[in-house]
Amino acid sequence: MLCKIVLQRLPIFKCDHCSSVFPRKCDLKSHSESVHQRQKPFQCDLCTSTFSRTVLLKSHFDAVHLGLKAYKCPSCSSAFSRKHHLNRHYKSIHQGLKSYKCHTCSSAFSNISYLKKHCLSVHQGLKPFRCDLCPLTYFRKDHLKFHSESVHQGLKPFPCNLCPLAYSRKEHLKLHLESVHQGLKPFQCNLCPSKFATKAHLKSHFKIIHLGLKPYKCHTCSSAFSGKGSLNQHCMSVHQGLKPYKCHTCSSVFSAKGHLNKHCMSVHHGLKPFQCNLCPSKFFTKTDLKSHFNAVHLGLKPYKCHSCSSAFSGKGDLNKHCMRVHQGQKPPKSSKSSHLMVFLFRAETRTCSLKFKIGPKRVI
Questions:
Q1: pLDDT at 343 over 50
Q2: Torsions phi, psi of 287, nearest 5?
């Protein structure tokens, strides 16, 4: 009874801008300054990160710059600087607990803050922070700052010791080391032999390949995508012609960061570890090798046009066909044709036992 009386007498400080409540006035002030006023007066001495409280700055410094992560996961090699981050990781990754469900779509989250961000940014379209150099918008100011530093300023403080790639975040470098150099792909699909480095990639694969879910449709053409980010990238590169990722070695530009990385590794550093068993062609990724094998050696053309009888080996070729033939639009320039001509020239100058059927404007 005494405990109940004491609890009833505790003051509760409510936020005027949201439904948050706090037991102390200083907590309410810190919440209002950091969340609603976006004040972050404590800046890191080694990078441009800013924080609303000194404890967050210390946590950032210990985790990012000193590499101190005392809380280790008992089921995998992940480690965290804060205990609640470990608990959240264990519940969502290893136990699969996502108790916070969105009432508008089927998305589920392990943390209520993730659910709030999802509802505000996806369903309400609340992205007030716009980039001055490209059309991208963000829900949070720190996301815009990270985008500006990594994309437009090219800041990548975390280099890989095994290859020339560098990353803007330490967790991205860790994922690169595990998936590319160590070959770790712990997330396997239950319906096919495909394996992935992250659970998000597995989920995207399952939705696209096995469920055929592509809810994000382009309003300009017939393309559809499983994620909103893929739709935005499609609109920027195909319909707006925007390619913000520039190569520092040559004049090539790309619409996606991954395409730029692939270009640098394969073209300028010559890293093509996946070689075809039937011809001299080499590729940077196993996916590119598989696509080459299916298109060139097996003649598979799974991407069929719904307006005519044409079929293509790649989705990009199908999109270009639809834009040029059926929509009367000029597709963006691509270097694939020049790569094909180089391959054909090399094939003619070598002794090759392969047989090809030469048709009008196509190699089958």
A1: no
A2: -65, -40
Q: How confident is the model at residue 337 (pLDDT cuts 50, 70, 90)?
A: very low
Task: Yes or no: say if 245 and 151 are a contact pair by the CB < 8 Å rule.
Answer: yes
Domain ranges of the chain: 16-66, 157-210
Mean pLDDT of 290-301: 85
DSSP 197-249: SSHHHHHHHIIIIIS----EE-SSSS-EESSHHHHHHHIIIIIS----EE-SS
Output the CATH code of domain 16-66: 3.30.160.60
**Class (C level, CATH) for 157-210:** alpha beta
Work out the average pLDDT over 57-82. 81
* Local structure of residue 179 (DSSP, 8 states): I
Burial status of residue 190 (CB atoms within 10 A of its CB: 0-12, 13-18, 19 or more) = exposed
C-beta separation of 109 from 127 below 8 A: no
Alpha helix stretches (DSSP H) within 50-151: 54-60, 83-89, 112-118, 141-147
Q: Is 347 exposed, middle or buried (0-12, 13-18, 19+ CB in 10 A)?
A: middle
pTM: 0.42
Q: Do 16-66 and 157-210 come out as alike in CATH topology? A: yes
Q: Which residues pair with 129 in a beta bridge?
A: 138
**Is residue 226 within 8 Å of 213, Cβ to Cβ?**
yes
Relative to beta strand 187-188, strand 274-275 is unpaired
- DSSP structure string for 97-112: ---EE-SSSS-EESSH
Percent of the chain with pLDDT strictly greater than 90: 0
Give Rg (Cα) of the chain.
25
Do the Cβ atoms of 110 and 100 come closer than 8 Å?
yes
pLDDT at 166 over 60: yes
The full DSSP string for 282-333 is: EESSHHHHHHHIIIIIS----EE-SSSS-EESSHHHHHHHIIIIIS---PPP
